[in-house]
UniProtKB/TrEMBL annotation:
Pathway: Glycan metabolism; L-arabinan degradation
GO BP, one annotated term: carbohydrate metabolic process
Site (Important for catalytic activity, responsible for pKa modulation of the active site Glu and correct orientation of both the proton donor and substrate): 127
Listed name of the protein: Glycoside hydrolase
UniProt GO MF annotations: hydrolase activity, hydrolyzing O-glycosyl compounds
Alphabetized InterPro entries for the sequence: GH43_arabinanases (IPR050727), Glyco_hydro_43 (IPR006710), Glyco_hydro_beta-prop_sf (IPR023296)
Family assignment from sequence similarity: Belongs to the glycosyl hydrolase 43 family.
Pfam families documented for this protein: Glyco_hydro_43 (PF04616)
Listed transmembrane segments: none
Keyword Nuclease applies: no
Top-rank taxon: Bacteria
SUPFAM superfamilies: Arabinanase/levansucrase/invertase
Assigned keywords, A-Z: Glycosidase, Hydrolase
């Protein structure tokens, strides 16, 4: 049995299995996060978000898999009777992209449902996440990476109902440089990563995302003024979390508490999963004091 502080993980994502009263924790788990050949993804399970069983291998690439490095930020969503993993991959001669994988069980094994990523192949993309709109239609939200365009941006595209292809052109949601709290890291470079959509109890649609501020790795939020994924989106002028932690997502615990999970600190190999209670406010979300 492991404690949360024993688990090195980046980009943590929690899937809550209410029927079996289990939390599943996924994330970037390769020892060589930034370089070297990638191993795959591992996951953990818990009853209380503190004591964890694992790790369990949930994805290991086949020999013919197109990517060999930067296996990042897996998310798992239950959709139409199956579990779908959205994760980022890269190879030396192909742009980074989000690939969708599928399994019949939360702990896998997960297998790609297409031969190539779902994000635009000529774009460097990462951190794709699934959003289901009010008409029960699926979307992918992802980052167009600053490595290619200097000012990182977040886009959305409609997906086919089997999640095998995009069926709309990319829609720009936000530009990192437009938020008041973001800082350029080098010569006008603005980072975007970790988008996650959350709908409040009163129906407001919020976008969590991460970048850099004057206190380090930081999570901010934006609000859709229309309540729909197409926006327009407005940045919250103040960040949600600004203490050297990020790539967050929101979930409700088995007892109904609203929770944010992030990795902190942001320096390898010290990253750990952190769980922080949240509350909804008139301005969106706030850390529970």
């Amino acid at each position: 049995m492991l404690r949360s502080q024993d688990i090195r993980i980046r980009d943590p994502f929690v899937y809550v299995d209410k029927s079996n009263q289990i939390y599943y924790l996924y994330g970037t788990t390769d020892e060589n996060v930034w370089s070297g050949e990638a191993y795959g993804f591992q996951a953990y399970q818990s009853k209380d978000l503190e004591n964890w069983e694992g790790p369990y291998d949930v994805f290991k690439p086949q020999d013919d898999f197109w990517a060999d490095r930067h296996f990042w930020a897996p998310e798992v969503h239950y959709y139409r009777g199956s579990y779908y993993m959205f994760a980022s991959f890269k190879s030396e001669d192909k742009c980074r992209g989000t690939q969708i994988l599928k399994s019949d069980l939360p702990l896998g094994p997960y297998q790609p449902i297409t031969e190539e990523p779902i994000t635009p192949r000529e774009w460097e993309c990462l951190d794709g996440t699934l959003y289901i709109d009010g008409e029960e239609k699926p979307w992918i939200i992802y980052c167009h990476e600053w490595l290619q365009i200097t000012e990182g941006k977040i886009y959305a595209q409609k997906l086919s109902e089997d999640l095998r292809e995009t069926i709309s052109e990319p829609i720009l949601l936000i530009n990192a440089a437009d938020a008041k709290w973001t800082n350029a890291v080098n010569d006008g470079v603005y980072v975007t990563d970790g988008p996650y959509l959350y709908t409040t109890e009163n129906g407001e649609l919020l976008l969590l995302w991460s970048s850099h501020s004057d206190t380090g790795y930081t999570i901010g939020t934006a609000r859709s003024n229309s309540g729909h994924i197409e926006g327009p989106w407005e940045h919250n002028p103040l960040p949600l979390f600004a203490k050297d932690g990020g790539h967050g997502m929101v979930f409700k615990t088995l007892t109904g508490e609203l929770m944010l999970t992030i990795h902190s600190p942001n320096k390898s190999p010290n990253e750990r999963p952190i769980f922080i209670k949240l509350q909804e406010t008139d301005s969106g979300l706030a850390l529970l004091k």
